[in-house]
Amino acid sequence: MKTQNIGLLLLVAVLVVGSLLIGSRQEGAEFAGADGQAMETVAVLNPDYEPWFGFIWEPSPEIASGLFALQAALGAGVLGYYFGFRRGQARRRNRPDAGD
Amino acid sequence: MHITEGFLPPLHAAAWTVIALPFVVMSARRVHRLMHDQPQTKLLLAASGAFAFLLSALKLPSVTGSCSHATGTGLGAILFGPSVMALLGTLVLLFQTLLLAHGGITTLGANVFSMAIVGPWTAYAVLRGVQQLRAPLALSVFLAAMLGDWATYLTTAGQLALAFPDPASGIIGAFLKFAGVFAPTQLPLAVIEGLLTVVIVNFLREYSSDELQSLKFLPQTLATEIRS
Question: Residues B136-146: what's their mean pLDDT?
Answer without folding.
Answer: 94
